[in-house]
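ARCHIVE CARD
Drawer: 12
Card no.: 0347
Subject: one protein chain, sequence and derived structure
Cross-reference: see card 0346
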Amino acid sequence: MKVKRGDVAGGKRVKNYQTGWRKRRGELAESAFLHKAVGLGLGVAKPWGESDRYDFILDSGTRLWRVQIKSAHSRAKAGYRIHCSGRSGVPYTAEEIDVIVAYLVPEQAWYVIPVEAIDCTDIGLTPGSHRRTSRFAKYLEGWCWLTCKNGKTAVEEQCGGGGACPMR
């Protein structure tokens, strides 16, 4: 039986059931991030409360990164839409976070995007796209640039110039 807004359950009126589900999906994405990051050998810390604009602090061994997790659970015609702003609609800045990690749940794909590369409140991600206009394709599974020992943060340099990411 599907519960709808306004239905009575257990003698109480059901409020906005979708709001709770959105929160749960965010928590599932954060849990998946924690599993992925620890599996790659990265240190992860979760700040107390929800007052900061970032969800996690990631320790790459060379520095600490303020990470905001975003997720998409369904694909539209143009790809997956990721909101690059908080609840207020104000875009994230480099003063608040260092990186947005976007998890595309149906694809099991991760985008690791420096906040400086994002210049709007929403972005479209299209894994597997062969279009040249897919400007975020270079950040797909781009965990390497967070761990570069030489301090470089460009995905194209792949932490060693050899082109193969040591984190994959």
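Annotation on reverse: The radius of gyration is 18 Å. The longest strand covers residues 64-72.
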